[in-house]
Amino acid sequence: MSNKDITGPVDKVTNIVVDLGPRLIMASSEVLGTSDNISIHVAESTKEELEKLKSAYEIRLVKMLGEGKVEA
């Protein structure tokens, strides 16, 4: 099998804004505020994963170590 025979998911989408609607804003188990509408920019996902995201009761955002780090 050559590399050109390997393909990713057919329903993959990139660079899409997902509107999640009203949400509580929490850090760990502490409520820090509310939002009338939260939108997030998703870099890459499948259509099925986006539907799960939109309907999820709870969504966790986890900071990726080493990403976006500014060196002085």
Structural write-up:
With 72 residues, the chain is mainly beta. The protein has a domain at 7-50. It has one helix at 47-55, and strands at residues 12-27, 30-46. The protein has a two-stranded antiparallel sheet with strand order 1-2. β1 (12-27) and β2 form a beta hairpin. The mean pLDDT is 83.
Q: What's the short story on this structure?
A:
The protein is mainly beta.
Task: Order the strands across the largest sheet as they lie in space.
Answer: 1-2
Structural class: mainly beta
Q: What is the average per-residue confidence, as pLDDT, rounded to a whole number?
A: 83
Q: If you compute it from the alpha carbons, what radius of gyration comes out, rounded to the nearest whole angstrom?
A: 16 Å
The share of residues in helices is 10-25%
Strand content: over 45%
Distance between the amino and carboxyl termini: 47 Å
- Low-pLDDT parts are none
Q: What is the number of E strands?
A: 2
C-alpha geometry: globular
Order of helices and strands: EEH
Q: Please summarize the sheet with the most strands.
A: 2 strands, antiparallel
Helical stretch tally: 1
